Amino acid sequence: MAMVEVAGLVKVFERRRVPWGRPSLIRAVDRVSFTIDEGETFGLVGESGSGKTTTARCLLRLIEPTAGSFSFRGEQVFGLPAARLRALRRDMQMIFQDPGSSLNPRMTAGAIVEEGLVIHGLGSPSDRRARVRELFELTGLDAADAGRYPREFSGGQRQRIGIARALALGPAFLIADEPVSALDVSVQAQVVNLLMDLQQRLGLTLLLVAHDLRLVRHVCSRVAVMYRGRIVETGSAGAVLDTPVHPYTRALVSHWGQV
Amino acid sequence: MNDDKAPVLEVRGLTAEFVSVRAGVRRAVRAVDGVSFEIARGEILALAGESGCGKTVTALSILRLVPLPGRISGGSIHFEGRDLAALDEDELRRIRGSRIGFVFQEPMTALNPVFTVGDQIAEVLEVHGVARGAAARARAVELLDAVRIPEPARRARDYPHQLSGGMRQRVLIAAAIACRPALVIADEPTTALDATVQAEILDLLVSMRGEFGLSLLLITHDLGIVARVADCAAVMYAGRIVETGPARVVLASPRHPYTRGLLASLPGSKPGRRLEAIPGAVPDLASLPPGCAFAPRCPERFAACEASRPDAFTVSPGHAARCFLYGGAA
After folding, report:
1. Hey, which residues 14-73 in chain B have their CB within 8 Å of chain A?
2. How confident is the model at residue B1 (pLDDT cuts 50, 70, 90)?
3. B200: confidence class by pLDDT, cuts 50, 70, 90
């Protein structure tokens, strides 16, 4: 059985031009289904507005899905009561696109990485400090910098903090939403390598949300291509991106092939 | 139009500084440091580099639009034979938007939300005395047609928010070419757009070069775009141009270790393998090393690199790299 099974996921946003007006409905995600096996890296590709980030956020219930089901290791995530959901989030974590805005500027790097442990009441203060040091080393940060604030780090280091934060609770499933697109080009490869290393060392299951076809082709074993809220093509990364069938995937691939 | 061989734009030793005063200490940060390049008539030059390398400040310097506390502290900018650095503000204003067009990265913020796009293009024509009133509005519709906007007469009456990102970028291009400039400067013109729309806008810019006979200075962080459209490429790092040459040569046989590292670090060749990452991070311009700015990250550095800054050395005709591997190191 697959670790992650998403079936018929729908997210409808309501938009009102004026607060008292009738809402117009926007189907950001429309009957999306996919599965991810344990230890696999799965890529969700698409352009802005295709619904890939909304899909990712629905899985962690950072936004509530409208319909559909998501089973994680056989357990239905949608509809779980808050307490059980919080416990489950130890196993599912997210890396955000922009480490400049997703890290609290008023907390030190060490406190950011430690926060999840505090919230889940794990370990004594000295255990937690040891764990933070371990996470810093694991992500290629200098443990001596734990007392510094995010703005004192470069973009690449900040994303390492975001990765250390996501790994703190020892998750099995990691969602990375455009983890390198906000970074300097000469630093992107470092962070991609770190993610691939960690995935192997820790046996992580990874959902990579990205618009960069070359990156997805490089990192993922299977991919799904989203267009206007739907998955239009899915399969092994080689099959979908080297010999695309759907006209939209073809257009995307031909663009990236030329660059 | 005097001499077809003369470059349209010739920049020599351009230096731009940003001055900050912190705790009573005045510090000048060189965002652009001795940048030289030229663009021939009808040529597309790509100025490529990462964020903070000085490519946008270089572009803004050409039109003397560097925002305070920045200022141009050295160098010359010859455009159609005149030194833009020596012109007064009135003379410059006649060149901006008329002889030199500008296309910005973010088409939503570059357009005024409360005027129709037709009016905004007509305004460019009126300000520069090319056409006025109904004639300017009619010309605006022709320009929208020239940038391949369907139903241009109807679209001219639309406001920016009614258009998609790609359509807005077409409007900006129409405004940039309205007065038939000799040079268009496009700063990351496709970065805010989706991949499929990017391709259309790049194709449009290339065809504008042919149809309007203009030269194009394209600022980009994306080497893929350089490969796709540029005739010549200049790669910037930490305020300086580190490699220049015909785009195809620079990309196929890069000589500067930074250009090489950047190309090698792109994903693509062998799926699943570790990427060849460049170690370290982009340096802080306020505390650059005394030698080559790339030396701390360079796999091929030697003693000379940390002692002084390399000049640009010619590695093949028209191809130069600012690196001691190619000469100068005693």
Report:
1. 50-52
2. very low
3. confident
- Which residue in B has a C-alpha nearest to residue A256's C-alpha? B195
Looking up residue B257, the CATH number of its domain turns out to be 3.40.50.300
Number of structural domains found in chain B: 1
Q: Which of B198, B267, B281 sits opposite A218 (nearest CB)?
A: B267
pLDDT for the residue numbered B270:
79
Nearest to B271 among A188, A218, A255 (CB): A218
Interior angle at CA B77, CA B75 and CA B83, nearest 5: 110
Asked if the structure places residue B126 within a domain, the reply is no
Q: With beta carbons less than 8 A apart as the criterion, state whether B58 and B14 touch.
A: yes
User: Would you place residue B276 in the very low, low, confident or very high pLDDT band (cuts 50, 70, 90)?
Assistant: confident
Range of the domain at B253: 9-99+179-326
Give contacts of B196 with chain A, Cβ < 8 Å.
47, 251-252, 255
Mean pLDDT over residues B241-267, rounded? 94
CB nearest to B275's CB, from A47, A189, A217: A189
> Which residue in A250, A255, A258 has the most chain B C-beta atoms within 10 A of its own C-beta, making it the best mutation to test that interface?
A255
Domain residue ranges in chain A:
39-62+81-258
The better pLDDT of the pair B150, B1 is held by B150
Per-residue pLDDT for B329 more than 60?
no
Contacts of A256 in chain B (CB under 8 A): 195, 224
pLDDT value, residue A168: 94
Distance of residue B255 Cα from the nearest chain A Cα, in angstroms: 16
ipTM of the prediction: 0.76
Establish if B157 belongs to a structural domain: no
Average pLDDT over residues B81-99: 87
Which of the four pLDDT bands, split at 50, 70 and 90, describes residue B122? very high
Contact assignment for A185 to B268 by CB distance below 8 Å: no
CB pair distance less than 8 Å for B228 and A193: no
Q: What is the pLDDT of residues A24-81, one digit of tens each?
A: 888 999 999 999 999 999 999 988 889 999 999 999 999 999 999 999 999 999 989 9
Candidate from A47, A197, A214 with C-beta closest to B266: A214
Give me the residues paired with residue A173 across strands.
Answer: A92, A205
The chain B residue lying nearest A198, using CA atoms, is B274
Q: Is the pTM of this model over 0.90?
A: no
CATH topology for the A39-62+81-258 domain:
Rossmann fold (3.40.50)
Judge whether B222 lies within some domain: yes
**B272 interface with A at CB cutoff 8 Å:** yes
* Structure-token pair, residue A32: 């999306």
Q: pLDDT tens digit string along B152-180?
A: 999 999 998 888 888 888 899 999 988 88
Q: To the nearest whole angstrom, how far is the Cα of B42 from the nearest Cα of chain A?
A: 22
